[in-house]
Amino acid sequence: MPYPAQVTPGRIIDAAAALIEQHGADQMSLHQLAADLGIRTPSLYRYFSNKSDLFRAVNLQTAHGLTAAMGAAIAQPHPDHAARVIAIGLAYRGYAHSHPHCYLLAYSSGDPALRPDESALAALAEQIQTSVAPLSMRYDSLTVLRGLWAMVHGFVTLELAHQIRRGGDLDAVFRAAVEIYVRGLTA
After folding, report:
1. The model's pTM
2. Who's near 29: CB < 8 A, 6+ residues apart?
3. What is d(CA 25, CA 107) in angstroms, rounded to the nearest whole number?
4. Of 135 and 99, which is predicted with more confidence?
5. Strand, helix or coil at 169?
6. Is 48 helix (H, G, I), strand (E, B) or coil?
7. For residues 59 and 28, what is the distance between their CA atoms, to the nearest angstrom?
């Protein structure tokens, strides 16, 4: 077994996220995590005081990953502000689909102990709010941001929970829903 000092918090978080994606947060065990890292379970407590502390770190990593995905979408050239905001929505959904269990852990848990650091959440909101501000002609940008986030997050959460029924091309439906919201702001 490797000496616990060879294990970093980052490696632990990455391994925990991988286990969460494989089995879901409810099935992720610290014993399995330690085994995957080649250490004993008590060694994990050198870095994280409990499972909730570890989940909070995974949630922070998820928030940073989601922010980076949307930042990449923002950085791409777009013909107008509406196209940029649509790209942000698509990037958001794409990230959630790439990390469904970690996304649901970070953004659907009602447990305040699992919330990522407020500064990470603020960075996520500010990044989107800056992009929607030019579309906020009739409304303040915070209202527009909240409406967009509620629609995108709600759709993605229902989709990941397999609650959207009656078939159809959900890629096309999602894109159309975001376009309707965004285009409605400028009409």
Report:
1. 0.90
2. 19
3. 13
4. 99
5. coil
6. coil
7. 14
